[in-house]
Structure formats: C-alpha cells, structure tokens
Design goal:
Elements lengths: L5 E3 L2 E12 L6 E3 L4 E14 L2 E3 L5 E17 L3 E11 L3 E4 L5 E3 L4 E4 L4 E4 L9 E3 L5 E5 L2 E4 L4 E3 L3 E5 L3 E4 L8 E3 L4 E4 L1
Parallel strand pairs: 1-3, 2-4, 3-5, 4-6, 6-7, 6-8, 7-9, 7-10, 8-11, 9-12, 10-13, 11-14, 13-16, 14-17, 15-18, 16-19
Amino acid sequence: NIRCDTYFSGTCRIVGNGKQLSVANGASIFLRPGAFVTFQDVILDHFGRDKLAIMRDNVNVVFDNVRFVLSDDYTFSRGAFSIQDSVVVTGTQKFIYAAGRTSTIQSLATLMIDQDTTFSYNPRVAKNNLLSFADGSAALVLNGCTLQATTTGLQLQGGMLILDNKVTLSSQSRSASQDIVLKSNLDVRVL
C-alpha cells in the first residue's frame, strides 16, 4: 500500500506479481515529466480521482496485465498509455480519457471495460482518433458497460471491437462527424 505521495521519474517498472496495490486516501502516485512507467501484473484497487497523477504530456505509461478497480471516477488527463496483454477496468465509476495524445492497444492485447463501468472519451483536443489499435489483433472489449463520447466524437478503426452483454454507446454529438464511428476496417463482434 502507498500511504504518502510517491514520485516516479525516468524509466520505472512496478511489478505486482498479481497482488493489489492500493493508494491511501490523500496520497497519489505522481509521474514526473518525461517518465516512462510500466505497471505490470498488478491490481490497482480502490482506484480513482487523483490516485495516478501524470504531470506532463511527455509521460508514457504501459499497463501490462493490469486490473483497475474503480472506487471513484478517474481521469487520464495527460500523457499516453499503451495496453499490453490484458487490461480490465471494472467498478461502477467512469474511466475518463481526457489526454491530448494517442494511446494504443498493442498487438494481441485486450482492453476490457467491464460491467457497469463507463469509458468516457473526452480528449482536451478536438481529435476523435486518440484511442488506436496497433493492428487487427488488438481488441477493445465492452462487457455490459457504457462507451461514451463527448462532442469530439470517437472513431475506432483497424482493430477488434467485441460487444458482450448489454452495451450502451452514447454520444453528445451535434453532427455526424461527432458521432461514435466504427470504420470499415474495424472487426466488430457481438457475443
């Protein structure tokens, strides 16, 4: 457990060996400018709000076999992330993507938004394509959750979108260019 503010800079790896990592109330993990941090084989428990604070846009984060258990809304507001292996976001809260850089689901990797969780695409720049797939083997799995886009819209292309259980897609669009767009090179599967 992390009980006080903790700062990471440079290249760092946090390996959880499948165990839980909790950040106490009032504490945060800060990623300093230029940091390249990998979270590997870890459960980020009671995650939300400012538990992971990214200080600048030039920060890169790798989530490799990570499970986010949201206890509050979390906003990924700066930097970029890379999804490797299997990453699951669960809880009845929102994971809000508000960064201005492209984040990627890598080859053979899966990002699952689990039951009753909301993934909100709300970038601070007017780009609808900041969530990307490395290739056709990269997958976004929506399992009984909500995928939400603001007036920026969201465009998904070049990977796999898997829909399981009741999934809600919602957009605050005012025109077709602001909708959630599933491009023809996206492999969509409904289970």
